[in-house]
Amino acid sequence: RAARDPEKAEKPRRKEKDIENGTTPSETVTDTAVKLDEAPSELPPSAQGALQHKESEEKMNLESFLNYVAFNKKTQAPTPQVLDLSEASADRANAEAQMVLRGSMGFKRVDVAKDLFAQLDAASVDVSATTFTLMIEACVVARDLKSASDFLMKMEASGHSPNSELLDKVLDLYSNQKAQKEVSKADRVKEDPDAELDLEAIALTRQKLKSDAPIFVPSFGIPPPPPKPKPVEEDADE
After folding, report:
1. Cα–Cα distance between 143 and 134 in angstroms, integer?
2. Are 107 and 69 in contact (CB under 8 A)?
3. How much is the CA Rg of the chain, to the nearest whole Å?
4. What's phi and psi for 24, nearest 5 deg?
5. Are residues 104 and 61 in contact, defined by beta-carbon separation less than 8 angstroms?
6. Bias category Polar residues: which stretches (predicted)?
7. Is 72 inside a domain boundary?
8. 226 phi and psi, to 5 degrees?
9. CB-CB contact of 85 with 121 (8 Å)
């Protein structure tokens, strides 16, 4: 038994040498090939199909946006009729507008959203809730709070209710801009502490001014106006 033990210990060493020298037994190679064949791919076919569909959709949206911009630049019209709104149904017109809006998201083009709304409104096409949502999201991406608020009011006036996620985006933009203004104001006061006092003094002065106050006349340079003549009193005898 003691003599066989070194042989058992020698077998693993031989296998390691065979692997290093590239002389691995055929059984080991076959087993490895089987394991590689059995290994699953990175993505299942369904996931790969969904990914390809998403990439294709994004490409179509980008092409729609680029065509829209190219057409506007070529015609240089104030309100170009890019969409065939006279013949297209409301659903088709909204679908085309949505493709352009999705393609414009990465370019922060609020003017595109405004132009599309003007076209749809001029053609008496009812703007859908999805189209309004994309218009507002385009304004949020561009950090244009005023335009986002305007589209929100138009959306509600059209009878559509914005979802909570969209409202949260607009409120977040409002909060961020408000915080930035407060920080900027604090920085100005820090640089010039008397600036805020001067603004308060000007505000108080404006409050004290009255429309019926006497005309201010400087004490130099311009003579004061003559006094108003007193009314002549008639004699008591007359």
Report:
1. 14
2. no
3. 39
4. -70, 140
5. no
6. 21-31
7. yes
8. -65, 150
9. no
- Residue 11 lies in domain: 7-33
Q: Report pLDDT digits (tens) over 145-175.
A: 999 999 999 999 999 999 999 999 999 999 9
| b/e 157-187 (16+ beta carbons within 10 angstroms → b) | eeebebeeebeebbeebeeeeeeeeeeeeee
Six-digit token pair at 134?
């994309």
Measured CA to CA, the distance from residue 112 to residue 65 in angstroms comes to 9
Interhelix angle for 90-104 vs 129-141, to 10°?
20
How many secondary structure helices (H) and strands (E) does the chain include? Answer: 9, 0
Is 88 in the same domain as 186? Answer: no
20 and 65 share one domain = no
**DSSP letters for 1-48:** -TTTHHHHHHHHHHHHHHHHHT---HHHHHHHHHHHHHSPPSS-HHHH
The pair of structure tokens assigned to 186 is 């604090």
Q: How many residues does the chain have?
A: 238
In the block, which residue shows the tokens 């991406």? 141
Question: With contact defined as beta carbons under 8 Å apart, do 65 and 103 qualify?
Answer: yes
**In this structure, what token pair is assigned to residue 213?**
């106050």
**Dihedral (CA of 62, 67, 70, 75) sign:** negative
- What is the rounded CA–CA span in Å between residue 65 and residue 105? 9
18 and 81 share a domain? no
How many domains is the chain built from? 3
DSSP state of 234: P
pLDDT for 26 equals: 47
Q: Are 154 and 116 in contact (CB under 8 A)?
A: no
